[in-house]
Amino acid sequence: MQVVLRILLFSAIAAIYLFVMAKLLGKKQIAQLDVIDYMLGIAVGSIAANMATDMSDTPFWHFLVAMSFFFVLNLFIIFLERKGKFFKKFLKGEPLMIIYEGKINYKSLKKSKLDINDLISKSREKGYFDLSDIEYAVFENSGGLSIMQKSPDAKLPYYLIDDGKINQATLRTLGYDQEWLNQKLDVADKKDLDNIILAVYDKEKDKIAVSYKNE
Predict the structure, then answer these.
(1) Taking the CB of the first residue and of the last residue of the chain, which one, N or C, has fewer CB atoms within 10 A?
(2) d(CA 34, CA 92)
(3) 147: closest CA among 160, 162, 156, 135?
């Protein structure tokens, strides 16, 4: 039992260490994986590699216990993410608006750990060789750059609700509160909100497009 506890303790320490390292490296180093997936992938891959190449007398089930820890950790993280946006934001970060209405947001650029040359390079990969052609650019959790070209119809969607959770930041941006949202959606309690997969607000038409779970 003491050996198992030792393995679990070292696995927990390794998880925390890998998480800190991945956060310090930033999304730029993670390619198409988010921080948690990157961390767990390295951890489980390393354990599996050690298990396959270990020539000592270490019982193979020691490695299985360690890998099982990271598997359970992954399930626990998924559970936390579904419990609220705070945990999801803390664990996996959030998309960053690098270009907004044609202007570079230096604060977001710095937070993303990109520099202007990285931004230009990623824009070229998307087919935009001139940053002045870009109306909006979002640096996603995966490390990719999503771009909306300048046009008369270029506008960002306002996601008010996703998976039953209200996006308070979007409400504040629009200058509205939850009472306004409840009235627009004609909902009475949290149970009604939980049934909504996605609610997107069209500011020009003053309408909300809603997708429900039970449809």
Answers:
(1) N
(2) 6
(3) 135
Q: What is the rounded distance in angstroms from the CA atom of residue 105 to the CA atom of residue 137?
A: 10
Angle of helix 2-25 relative to helix 60-83, nearest 10 degrees, comes to 50
Residues of the chain with pLDDT under 50: none
Distance CA 151, CA 133 (A): 9
Look-up: residue for tokens 């490695």?
63
What pLDDT does residue 58 have? 75
Contacts 24+ apart (CB under 8 A), 30-33: 30/142, 30/143, 31/142, 31/143, 32/142, 32/143, 32/144, 33/142, 33/143
Largest CA distance in the chain: 70
At 143 the pLDDT is 81
Q: In this structure, how many other beta carbons lie within 10 angstroms of the beta carbon of residue 98?
A: 26
The DSSP H or E segment spanning 38 is helix 35-53
Question: Which residue, 180, 179, 158, is CA-closest to 169?
Answer: 158
What spatial distance separates the first Cα and last Cα of the chain, rounded to whole Å? 50
The pLDDT assigned to 52 comes to: 64
- Token pair, residue 15, equals 């998880």
Residue 195: alpha-carbon gap to chain centroid: 22
Q: For position 146, what pLDDT does the model report?
A: 93
Question: Residue 215: what pLDDT?
Answer: 61
